[in-house]
Amino acid sequence: MLYRCLWTIAFCCALGLALRGQSLPGGSARVRGEVTWDGEGRTDALSVERISGGRVVDRASVMPDGSFESGAVPPGEYELRVADLNETIIQRRFVAVHGPLEGVVFRLEGIERARPASGTVTLHSLLRPPPAAARKEFVRASR
């Protein structure tokens, strides 16, 4: 009995590996791809939405490594778009699915970090009183 169970599990695993990336029953297929960033990547959660007829028909989460997968996609023309949790569209792409579709890449701009203030302050400049025009502007702004 144990031998039969192990054989069944091994057969199912081998079959799953053989069918990976193949068309699914009913003519549907998988769509796989990745989201990459130029520079430093975003840390908020993203999803890839599949649009047909102007409405969202499927939503796949973008994994921490940037990959995404949408299964059981019927043949046809679709709009794929990357969106954040607020459903703000970041980028979109049109694809035709006629079988397994791999390698869909969305390249996003990275996050620009705040730049440190430029310039230097010396001890000598701090010992001198500020210019009269600067003091006058400070008093005017504080009112």
Characteristics:
3 helices, three-stranded mixed sheet, four-stranded antiparallel sheet, 143 residues, Immunoglobulin-like, alpha+beta
List the helices and strands and how they pair.
Blueprint: H1 2-19, E1 29-38, E2 46-52, E3 55-61, E4 67-73, E5 76-84, E6 89-97, E7 101-109, H2 123-127, H3 132-142
Parallel strand pairs: 1-7
Antiparallel strand pairs: 1-4, 2-3, 2-5, 5-6
What's the number of extended β-strand segments? 7
Overall, the morphology is elongated
Kindly name the structural category.
alpha+beta
Distance between the termini: 88 Å
CATH class value:
Mainly Beta
Unreliable spans are: 10-15, 17-25
Estimated radius of gyration: 27 Å
The description of the largest β-sheet is: 4 strands, antiparallel
The amount of beta strand, in percent, is 35-45%
Relevant CATH superfamily: Immunoglobulins
Instruction: Could you tell me the CATH topology label.
Output: Immunoglobulin-like
Number of H/I helices: 3
Please describe what this structure looks like.
The protein has 143 residues and is α+β, with helices and mostly antiparallel strands. It has a single domain (2-111), classed as Immunoglobulin-like. Helices cover 24% and strands 41% of the residues. It contains three helices and seven strands; from the N terminus they run αβββββββαα. The protein has helices at residues 2-19, 123-127, 132-142, and strands at residues 29-38, 46-52, 55-61, 67-73, 76-84, 89-97, 101-109. The chain has a four-stranded antiparallel beta sheet with strand order 3-2-5-6, with no helix packed on it. Strand 5 and strand 6 (89-97) form a beta hairpin. It is elongated, with a radius of gyration of 27 Å. Residues 10-15 and 17-25 have low confidence and may be disordered.
